[in-house]
Design goal:
Blueprint (H helix, E strand, L loop, with lengths): L2 H18 L8 E5 L4 E5 L10 E9 L10 E8 L9 E2 L7 E5 L10 E8 L7 E6 L7 E5 L2 E4 H6 L11
Antiparallel strand pairs: 1-2, 1-9, 2-5, 3-4, 3-7, 4-6, 7-8, 9-10
Length: 168
Amino acid sequence: MKRGTAVRVAAVVALAPLLTACGAEYDPLFVTGTAAEPTLAWRDCPAAKDDGITEAALYEWDDSSTVDDPGRTLWHIRATDGKTVSQRIRLGTAPDGFTTERPLTDALDPGTTYALRTNMASDDQVSGFLTFRLEQLAPGQVVFGESDAESRTAYDDRDDEEFGCFPE
C-alpha cells in the first residue's frame, strides 16, 4: 500500500467514530441487501425522537478520496419540507418526500469501493459515513465498513451504546 493511501485509510478509520456519535464503537449507518439491490439503513436509537435520514449520497471511492472529498458523486437525495425516513432506502431510489439531486445512472461495479454518507434530522445523531464493496453484500449480512460485516442477527444483538445510542 502506498504511503498516501495508508494515511487516507487511517484518517477514515480514525474519523469514523467522530462522524457517527461520541463514544460510538460502530457506525450506526449500514448497507444491507444484495449486490443487485444494495440498501442503506440506519440503526434506530430508542432515545432519539423524530430522527431519520434527511440526506444521503453515494460516491465512487478511490486512492485520492478522503472523508471530506469522498470522490465522484454517483447518487444524491435530500428530504423536502422537513421529511425524514427511518426505514431502509434502496440505493438509486428516492423515498416519498425526497428530491433526487443526482440520479444514479451508472451501474455499480463489484470491483469498486463506494462511500456512503448520510445526514440525520436530530442533534442526537450526526452524519454517518462508511465505505463498502458490493462483494460484501449477501442475504442476512450487514456491512458497516469496508472491513466490517457481520450477520444481521449478530448486528441486532449488539448493545445500542456500541452505536452511540445512549438512554435519555
